[in-house]
Amino acid sequence: MDDVIDNRALPSRTARLVSPAQLRAFLPASAPTNGLVRRTRDALTRIVRREDTRIALIVGPCSIHDTRSALEYATRLASLRDAYRDALEIVMRVYFEKPRTTVGWKGLINDPRLDGSYRIAEGLERARRLLLDIHALGLPAATEFLDLMTVRYLDDLVSWAAIGARTTESPMHRQAASGLGMPIGFKNGTDGGVKVAIDALVAAHSPHRYLALSMDGGIEAVASDGNPSAHVVLRGGKKPNYDAASIDAVCTDLARAGMAQTVVVDASHGNSGKVAQGQTAVCRDLAKQIADGEGRIAGVMIESHLSHGRQDLIPGVPLAYGQSITDECLGWDDTVELIHTLAGAVRARRRSALYRSALAQHAFSD
């Protein structure tokens, strides 16, 4: 037995966490919250299948680092969800994990105190509590599933989820998406390549057998049926891909792959050049396409916070309230203007001759 490696001798430290079932029991979802999640998932599914004339709007901070400012943002957004529900299915972007090319702050779950103490148990609890508080306002949530070990702690409170550009090519994420009960958006690669996202889409639509964390904290073998509501998210790359020609091209590729010709467009990242104000031009272009009758745009993503811009996380330096510590975000007033613009575009689309012709082919229903 001398040649057997004892992993306990490796220089690492571990801490036992509560199981997903235990955290859910400690912070349970109410019946109204469960109903809101179910209705929102259903609505988003109809939108991405082109069975609803509205569009999805996934809007909120690049990442959550302060639950107080996030809840204030949610309170403001909840009123807009009600005001524009005829044209938009508004869902708040509530991202708790941040992928890193090398190193950096990994998000609220990983390091909730923003000080390198990595209190993951606290991060999971704070994340779930915030999701419950947001839903109590009548506002559903969207997130990115990055670390698959965290999914079962939160997925009952998620109405839409993204698989990011760095993980779209991951077989594990594609398999997991096939078994999740909400619409999943696969982003194109960081270089702008859409093939990886379409390949992911085909995989997620298919049944799989895979291993996953169980509710009691063990490992279970999952048999999924496939997720028919998975779709592509265009987030740009070396160049933007929100323009009409790019949408035509990806929809042609989707048709060749046997997938529905619908896309969600991320106004940030490569499409905005990572400049917050660039999202304004992207959304105005998308609004024009929509108003002119483009029916294949099923949704828009916007990175937005209470205050415009971003700030660095510097030890010992107080943070400005309501401003991102990751990517630049639009400020609140600019966000409200874009929401109004996109809602107007959806209403105009319903009146366009091109769109009315598409109605007969796709049987949209309000």
UniProtKB/TrEMBL annotation:
Per its UniProt entry, which superkingdom is the organism in?
Answer: Bacteria
Which InterPro entries does the annotation name?
Aldolase_TIM, DAHP1/KDSA, DAHP_synth_1
| Keyword Repeat attributed | no
Q: What is its EC number?
A: 2.5.1.54
Q: Which GO terms describe its molecular function?
A: 3-deoxy-7-phosphoheptulonate synthase activity; identical protein binding
Name of the top EC class for this enzyme: transferase
Per the record, the pathway is: Metabolic intermediate biosynthesis; chorismate biosynthesis; chorismate from D-erythrose 4-phosphate and phosphoenolpyruvate: step 1/7
For the DAHP synthetase I/KDSA domain, which residue ranges apply?
46-337
TM ranges are: none
Q: Which Pfam families match?
A: DAHP_synth_1 (PF00793)
What UniProt keywords apply to this chain's record, in alphabetical order? Amino-acid biosynthesis, Aromatic amino acid biosynthesis, Transferase
Q: Which GO terms describe its cellular component?
A: cytoplasm
**Catalyzed reaction equations:** D-erythrose 4-phosphate + phosphoenolpyruvate + H2O = 7-phospho-2-dehydro-3-deoxy-D-arabino-heptonate + phosphate
Q: Share an example GO biological-process annotation for this protein.
A: amino acid biosynthetic process
PANTHER family membership: PHOSPHO-2-DEHYDRO-3-DEOXYHEPTONATE ALDOLASE DAHP SYNTHETASE, PHOSPHO-2-DEHYDRO-3-DEOXYHEPTONATE ALDOLASE, TYROSINE-INHIBITED
Homology family? Belongs to the class-I DAHP synthase family.
What this protein is reported to do is described as: Stereospecific condensation of phosphoenolpyruvate (PEP) and D-erythrose-4-phosphate (E4P) giving rise to 3-deoxy-D-arabino-heptulosonate-7-phosphate (DAHP).
Q: What is this protein called?
A: Phospho-2-dehydro-3-deoxyheptonate aldolase
